[in-house]
Here is the input.
Amino acid sequence: MIAKSMKKFTANSSAVRKMFEEGARLAKEFGAENVYNFSIGNPNVPVPNSFNDAILDIIENEDPVKIHSYMSNAGHEDVRKAVADHINKEHDTAFTEANIIMTVGAAGGLNVAFKTILDPEDEVIAFAPYFVEYGAYVGNYNGVLKMVPPDLENFQINFAEFEKVITEKTRAVIINSPHNPTGVVYSEETIKKIAALLEAKQKEYGSEIFIIADEPYRELVYGGITVPYITKYYKNTLVAYSWSKSLSLPGERIGYLVIPSEINDFAEMLDAAMVANRVLGFVNAPSLLQKAVAKCLDESSDIAFYEKNGKTLYDNLTEYGYECVKPQGAFYLWVKSPIADEKKFCDMAREHRILIVPGSSFACPGYVRISYCVAYETVVNSLPGFKKLMDEI
Ligand SMILES: Cc1ncc(COP(=O)(O)O)c(C=O)c1O
Here is the structure.
């Protein structure tokens, strides 16, 4: 018999994943070209050639035993140094290899971060709508996820509600920008406001509140918008990054955690995070992939491709009468369901072989997420279905 604590997971297994599987089934029945599967954030821009070249180069030129060996739980030192230098160049920071732990994707980094800082009953705040796995990750360490309701006007942070949710038990706040599922980016002004509020609350409660910056979409931004680097505004910040989206490598599981030297109890924090990486069973991030991404730090996937998909969907759907949040980043379009029950709307969309995810999967009913990391033809060919749906309603 499985653990009681797992029963709720198997009973409510991810709607996103279910939808993805439904897409595969429909594709078999109707042909892949007749199914518009906007369910999952699986990048469809091919990995840059330089990544494949890097893998071949490493296999041919590195020591064939060493490259596949165990290493420090933090990862290869030369890779961590290259990553630190890259962040410094991009964001005018002053990290060294000592500030970087290579992780198994952002998901691995977030779990290492929570394992490092959470005691049972500690509270972690997330802004709805949010990536649904946060609840599971925080629960893994017996923390409690607290939700800040959204600002339905623009899906930026609702500060009045945010302040109400912070208590003496608050241990961390998750900031995800560019944001899944809304595509919004938080401005420098917003980050400064968050930092000021958390500084004040740390003083008021005599506590430590960490920002966990979840940044797998950092480079995926449109129209020259900038994404502030949060460690520059708030010292108790941990950054979880991955190449899942920026290099289209989600199945490879490679990312890193930044632990700034200014963070409270830096040395202890670093040791604890390395131990967390080990005892969670990751041990270290995949060796070959660490070396390969280090050779591609200046690369990014084709952002213009996603921008075109997002713009095409946004322009056409708004013309048909849908209310959409204009994407600033990531590859998601967040749309108000034209009927109150967004799950029913998703079922109606499925009749047109359009697969989209209900907002209740992100703790925000009444909305749906369209994941547009798909072929441009899929976007264009889905448009008549979206129009018919609106006409039916
Ligand atoms: C907001 C957010 N955080 C974290 C992750 C996990 O990313 P990774 O593949 O790097 O583990 C995802 C993946 O979709 C995500 O959307």
Summary: Residues 41, 105-107, 131, 176, 180, 214, 216, 242, 244, 250, 255 surround pyridoxal-5'-phosphate (CB under 6 Å). The chain has a mean pLDDT of 95. The first strand starts at residue 36 and ends at 37.
